Amino acid sequence: MKKLQSITLFLFACLIFFCNASVLAQNDSATFEQIKKIFYQQQRAWNNGNIEAFMQAYWNSEELQFGGANGITKGWQQTLESYKTGYPDRATMGKLSFQIKDLTKHSEDVVSLTGSWELERENDRPGGHFLLIWKKINGEWKIVVDHTSQICQQ
């Protein structure tokens, strides 16, 4: 009888563990889908020549950090101005494509996304890699840190 109780208790514990793991995996999947939706909206905005719409995925704060070839830029407005300076017209903006390499949930409100990017333009195809830190702020996922590198072209 005691052996049956132990087996029943063990099976019950396993059931709870696997149910919780399944719920957590579903929550991660839903979170990742939300972030991917915003991320690919960014890509569409860029390809439509709309830098302001592209910037909607970023945290509109002076605490936003963007790291790139020119160093660290702090602040949403400064990041917007940097994009506008670097990409003043549709020709320089080209056609953007992203490839997600990894999404990792670090906590209920922090996710990292790593991947690569490429611009298809008339005379070149610059590209590189990025690491984005997303944070859930007031119920919305926003990029709070962006580190983007460009692969040197020969």
How much helical structure, as a percent, in the residues? 40-55%
Radius of gyration: 21 Å
Q: What is the arithmetic mean of pLDDT?
A: 87
- The dominant shape is globular
Secondary structure class reads alpha+beta
Element string (H = helix, E = strand): HHEEHHEEEE
Q: Hey, roughly how much beta strand do the residues contain?
A: 35-45%
Describe the main β-sheet briefly: 6 strands, mixed
CATH topology label: Nuclear Transport Factor 2, Chain: A
> So what's the CATH class?
Alpha Beta
The DSSP helix count reads 4
Task: Point out poorly predicted stretches.
Answer: 9-26
Q: State the separation between the terminal residues, measured CA to CA.
A: 76 Å
Domain module tally: 1
**Strand order in the sheet with the most strands:** 2-1-6-5-4-3
CATH architecture: Roll
**E-strand count:** 6
How does this model look, in words?
It is globular, with a radius of gyration of 21 Å. The longest helix has about 45 residues, at about 1-45. Strand 1 and strand 2 (about 70-75) form a beta hairpin. It has one domain: Nuclear Transport Factor 2, Chain: A. The chain has about 150 residues and is of the alpha+beta class. The protein is built from 4 helices and 6 strands; from the N terminus they run H-H-E-E-H-H-E-E-E-E. The protein has a 6-stranded mixed sheet, with helices on one face.
